[in-house]
Amino acid sequence: MEVPPVAKQPTAEKRQRRERGSINPDDIINGAFELAEDIGIDNLSMPLLGKHLGVGVTSIYWYFRKKDDLLNAMTDRALRQYVFATPYVEAADWRETLRNHARVMRKAFLGNPILCDLILIRSALSPRAAKLGVAAVEKAIESLAEAGLSPEDAFDTYSAVSLHVRGSVVLQRLYDKNQSTDCGPGYFEEAMVIDPETAPLLAKVSAEGHRIGASDEKNFEYGLDCILDHAARLIEESAAKPAQRRKTATPRRKAAADR
């Protein structure tokens, strides 16, 4: 009887063992990022990290009592690097700077799966990381309000952009994970069988490169344009209201003067 092969478990390359007391929290966090690059956040464990760093696992537990504490520390560092690398939204050129902000955000997460897993998929921020995130969002909303949006519309606009970016990135990340584990189609479109006889429009646009439910550049940019166009209309409507009020007030003042 043939025995089925057993899936290979994540392993860490063993380093030369360190001297006792020669490791610190920064060394541990650095090592955790190194190991996560090879085996992913899901497979990261304290014993594997100890082997990777060449220390006993108790040396790690001395600083981080459980894996969640270590992941929080990794998230703090990742979020600081992410925030500093993300361009500000400027009121004077709000549309292009917000577009650039969204593109850079998306590119940063797509280019760093560890960043995506820590901040977007894990979605557990320490108080320090959460405070840093609030400051960045406040700055963006402040700029949008200065550009002419009400505080509520500025909040909703930035929230929509953030949701659009995060949804696009997480969908792509899940797709990549499914592809690496042979779980089958990762996008809704890939599971569809499009018959030109019964779905001629779908067949036509699909042949032109359009994809349903895919987090590609075309879909991302289209959705981003829709959000920006809506915000621009809100700014135009807000700017038109004072002029409209002045128009309606003038005849009243004239009539009062005639009397």
Describe this structure as you would to a colleague.
This is TetR family transcriptional regulator. Residues 11-21 have a biased composition (Basic and acidic residues). Residues 1-23, 238-259 are annotated as: Disordered. Residues 45-64 bind DNA. Keywords: DNA-binding, Transcription, Transcription regulation. The chain is mainly α. It has two domains: 10-65, Arc Repressor Mutant, subunit A; 89-236, Tetracycline Repressor, domain 2, CATH 1.10.357. 67% of the residues lie in helices and 0% in strands. The chain contains ten helices and no strands. It has helices spanning 25-39, 46-53, 57-61, 67-85, 94-111, 113-121, 127-146, 151-180, 200-207, 217-258. It is flat. It starts with 24 loop residues before the first helix and ends with a helix.
Radius of gyration: 26 Å
Distance between the termini: 108 Å
Strand content: under 5%
Helix content: 55-70%
- Round the mean pLDDT to the nearest integer and report it: 82
Question: How many DSSP-defined strands?
Answer: 0
Quickly give the structural class. mainly alpha
CATH topology type of the largest domain: Tetracycline Repressor, domain 2
Name of the level-1 CATH class of the largest domain? Mainly Alpha
The tally of structural domains comes to 2
Shape: flat
Main beta sheet: strand number and arrangement?
A: none
List the helices and strands and how they pair.
Blueprint: H1 25-39, H2 46-53, H3 57-61, H4 67-85, H5 94-111, H6 113-121, H7 127-146, H8 151-180, H9 200-207, H10 217-258
Helix pairs in contact: 1-2, 4-7, 5-6, 5-8, 5-10, 6-8, 7-8, 8-10
